[in-house]
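User: New here, please read:
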Amino acid sequence: MTFTSLASSSKGNAYVVSDGDTTLLLECGLPIRELQKRLGFQLSGITACLVSHEHQDHAQAAPQLLKRGVPVYMSEGTARAHKSPMDDARLVKAGDVFDIGALRIRAFQTFHNTAEPLGWIIWDTRTHECMLFAVDTMNLSVIVDGLTHICIECNYQDELLARCDRTPSWLMAVSYTHLTLPTNSRV
C-alpha cells in the first residue's frame, strides 16, 4: 500500500492511498483543477474519495468529483453541512465497514467542530497492511491492532505547545501548521 500527500494545509488537503489496483483519494480540499494537476491529470485513476468532514480545506472538490462519476464517501452530517448539495454522496457512519476493490475500509468517529466527522482504517486484504487515517481531531477513540501505517494530519498553536510539558522538542521545532506523519512502524 502506498500513501502520497498531495496537499496538507489550511489551504487544502488531499492524499492518495493505493494498493496498485484500487486508488483512493482521501480528502478533496483543493479546487478541482488544482487537484487534477497534482494527480497528473489522472482523475480517471481515482476509484473513490473518502471525506472526513465538510470544511472546504477537506471537501472543496466533492461536488465536482461526484459530477465526474467518482464515488464520494462521507457521513450524513458532512453531506448535510457541506455548502453544496451532496445528494449522490455515499453515506457512511462510524462503525461501518465496506470494501472498495481489495481495500476494506472502516469508518470511525473523530472529534472536531463539524457534523459527524470520520476517520478511516484501511486494510489491504491481500497484503494485510493496515492504515489509520485521521485529520483535524483532538482525540482518537479507536484501537487498532496490526497497524503498518499511521497518517495523522493535525493543527497546533504555538501558545498551546509552549504550555505542554510532555511535547517532544523535535515536535516543538516543527514550523508547519499541519503535520502528516506516515510511518511503517508497528503500533
Observations:
- The helical segments are 32-38, 56-59, 62-67, 76-81, 158-163, 169-172.
- The CA atoms of residues 48 and 70 lie 6 Å apart.
- The mean pLDDT is 86.
